[in-house]
Protein: Fucose operon FucU protein, putative
Amino acid sequence: MLKGIDPILNAEVLFALRAMGHGDDLIIADTNFPSDSVARDTVLGEILRIDRPAAEVVRAVLSVYPIDTFVDDAAARMEVVDEPDTILPVMQEVQQEVSAAGGLTMMSIERFAFYDRSKKAYAVIQTGERRFYGCFAFRKGVVPPDAS
Structure:
């Protein structure tokens, strides 16, 4: 156990988050997403797991992970098939966590385009989220130097 770090962030996840650099993508996916097979194509090459609801995982991750502020697609959600404007409750909950961490509005990404982005990501965290479309992508930003 460490002080100041959300206890749901396990050692493997913390290692991956720390190893990532500016511009690297992190995928946080629901239980139905093909996380294991997609994760094999990522930089990390293996699946990470946090068996909690998506919004809890996003809150914990964003407590240590800066979101990129230089690009428009730094926070994204998989869109509902044939309903790109539909915002499901799981998406609303995650958007609240994203807004609390930096105020960005998540963009939607078509399902197969989301899979393609996921395969190019640094890592995939599979959550315990059982609701459909609980899949999100976050591009890592920078941590500025301490003020002098």
Remarks:
- The mean pLDDT is 95.
- The first strand starts at residue 25 and ends at 29.
- Residues 25 and 139 are 4 Å apart (CA to CA).
- The first helix runs from residue 11 to 19.
